[in-house]
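Structure first, sequence second, as always.
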């Protein structure tokens, strides 16, 4: 099994774009689409499957979640998206996908204050909560609004699927950086992340699946096994 640090994963992404012309937007699309496939297979047919709640950050991990939400919406699943932060903070490829979600009229609420009772009820009623707050780029403890959102997610008692790594987990060391999502499943993108294989990483990540996001075979085969 190939395993990478966050720095190595960023270099794979960079080389995929610079050497092969595979844009970040394509990689984001692939990650979100494969995540949607996995979640749909778990839920079964949309009728009677319950609502999927996708909790997104404003960066690339949030963008993966927005793509997953779009694909699940197009398949007929009931969707709710929470954006943890202001709309104005969404940038780059994530912003492209946020605009699409808005045009599709998917139910989306930006949380700029701690979640209120209505948001808590929605999270507690979810069939699946998708954690797309933070990915491998997190390099400081989670505090403030994001910490309150993570705490609520953990207290909901619902089935949690984390995208790439559980939000708040250091993808290098596997240590929680302040508040950290406790997932039942983690869908990690492209290659297994080093931090998911530590004792604490496994406790936070639950069952781990590696999603094929279309990284060039030449790059993956050059990694040590």
């Amino acid at each position: 099994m190939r395993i990478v640090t966050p720095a190595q994963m960023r270099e794979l992404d960079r080389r995929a774009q610079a050497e092969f012309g595979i844009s970040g937007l394509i990689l984001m699309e692939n990650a979100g689409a494969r995540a949607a496939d996995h979640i749909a297979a778990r839920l079964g047919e949309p009728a009677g499957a319950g609502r999927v709640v996708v909790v997104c950050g404003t960066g690339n991990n949030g963008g993966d979640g927005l793509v997953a939400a779009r694909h699940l919406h197009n398949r007929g699943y009931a969707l709710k998206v929470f954006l943890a932060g202001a709309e104005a903070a969404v940038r780059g490829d994530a912003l492209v996908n946020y605009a699409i979600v808005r045009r599709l009229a998917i139910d989306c609420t930006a949380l700029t204050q701690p979640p209120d009772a209505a948001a808590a009820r929605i999270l507690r009623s979810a069939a699946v909560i998708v954690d797309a707050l933070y990915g491998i780029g997190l390099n400081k403890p989670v505090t403030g609004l994001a910490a309150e959102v993570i705490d609520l997610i953990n207290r909901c008692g619902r089935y949690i699927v984390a995208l790439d790594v559980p939000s708040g987990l250091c993808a290098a060391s596997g240590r929680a950086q302040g508040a950290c999502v406790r997932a039942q499943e983690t869908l990690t993108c492209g290659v297994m992340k080093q931090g998911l294989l530590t004792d604490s990483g496994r406790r936070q990540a639950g069952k781990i699946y590696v999603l094929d996001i279309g990284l060039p075979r030449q790059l993956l085969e050059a990694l040590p096994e």
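Margin note: Residues 13 and 24 are 8 Å apart (CA to CA).
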